């Protein structure tokens, strides 16, 4: 293992009866790097991360922390990692500061509560009780708790859920600052824009296996030098994607009623699109031609939207 690698996984496996939740996953993460782990619901990403956090035991495989094989995630590892869970249960009668002080007391070293309150912009809520916090404020508190022990590796699970756009951007700046300080960030998110902005590398998991790994640009290039024709459908009550594919085999469904076609022959594809939908009652509307992004890569590889 390279000295620069702070976390490694080799052939990790976890089974639930006949279900192979994690089926031979391997990857490495370097110091100061942000790795985004993406996958549809049920793909195995949550189980993988929970194993690395010590919340579940693997059935097979090896885990390396800081260059050493670990049989279990004991206190010596937990002192060096921070975990922000998607659903965090705090004592509702405690204030924000009291919550940070409580969790800080569980570690041999800790960052000052005042520093974390400033870092997560919780100054106005420092004496507010947990039960009175909004969803976004609770998320910021959960991230602050994950950083209380000044960890070398931070696990962030859907950290910006419930946040408004301004708060989301603020947290992105916090993650960027952590990376500059040499911290390693393991990010799971449903926001593709978030993964594109923060991740140095992206790991896409489906059916318990790694199906793609690389930088955002590498993954985009992997689907070819193509263009995306994105459009809305009007003039019809309902039509299934299966029936649409009979007319347009290359069509793929996006969110909010939009569709797309990936092509390297834009003019030809547009001509076919309008020709094949002529006299069908289908109206093509709001056409956009753009370069592929991470969402397109994900859809191409898994056949599903990240939120499916």
UniProtKB/TrEMBL annotation:
It comes from the Bacteria. It is found in: Cell membrane. GO terms for cellular component: plasma membrane. Residues 7-232 form the ABC transporter domain. Its main location: membrane. InterPro entries: AAA+_ATPase, ABC_transporter-like_ATP-bd, ABC_transporter-like_CS, ABC_transporter_ATP-binding, P-loop_NTPase. It holds the Pfam family ABC_tran. One of its GO terms (molecular function) is ATP binding. Keywords: ATP-binding, Cell membrane, Membrane, Nucleotide-binding, Translocase, Transport. The keyword GTP-binding does not apply. Belongs to the ABC transporter superfamily. This is ABC transporter related. It comes from Kosmotoga olearia (strain ATCC BAA-1733 / DSM 21960 / TBF 19.5.1).
């Amino acid at each position: 293992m390279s000295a620069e690698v702070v976390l490694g996984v080799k052939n990790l496996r976890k089974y639930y009866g006949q279900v192979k939740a994690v089926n031979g996953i391997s990857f490495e993460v370097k110091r100061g790097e942000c790795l985004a782990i993406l996958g549809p619901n049920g793909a195995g990403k949550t189980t993988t991360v929970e194993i690395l956090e010590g919340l579940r035991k693997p059935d097979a495989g090896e885990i390396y922390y800081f260059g050493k094989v670990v049989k279990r995630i004991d206190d010596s590892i937990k002192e060096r990692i921070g975990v922000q869970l998607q659903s965090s249960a705090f004592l509702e009668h405690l204030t924000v500061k009291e919550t940070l002080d409580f969790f800080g007391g569980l570690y041999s070293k800790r960052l000052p509560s005042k520093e974390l309150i400033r870092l997560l912009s919780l100054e106005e809520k420092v004496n507010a009780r947990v039960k009175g916090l909004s969803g976004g404020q609770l998320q910021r508190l959960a991230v602050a708790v994950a950083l209380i022990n000044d960890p070398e590796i931070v696990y962030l699970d859907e950290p910006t859920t419930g946040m408004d756009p301004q708060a989301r951007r603020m947290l992105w700046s916090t993650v960027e600052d952590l990376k500059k300080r040499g911290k390693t960030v393991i990010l799971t998110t449903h926001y593709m824009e978030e993964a594109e902005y923060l991740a140095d590398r992206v790991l896409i998991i489906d059916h318990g296996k790694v199906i793609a790994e690389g930088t955002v640009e590498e993954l985009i290039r992997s689907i070819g030098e193509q263009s995306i024709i994105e459009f809305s459908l009007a003039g019809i009550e309902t039509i299934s994607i299966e029936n649409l594919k009979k007319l347009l085999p290359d069509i793929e469904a996006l969110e909010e009623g939009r569709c797309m076609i990936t092509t390297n022959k834009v003019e030809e594809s547009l001509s076919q699109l309008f020709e094949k939908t002529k006299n069908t009652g289908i109206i093509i509307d709001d056409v956009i031609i753009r370069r592929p992004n991470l969402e397109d890569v994900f859809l191409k590889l898994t056949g599903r939207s990240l939120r499916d």
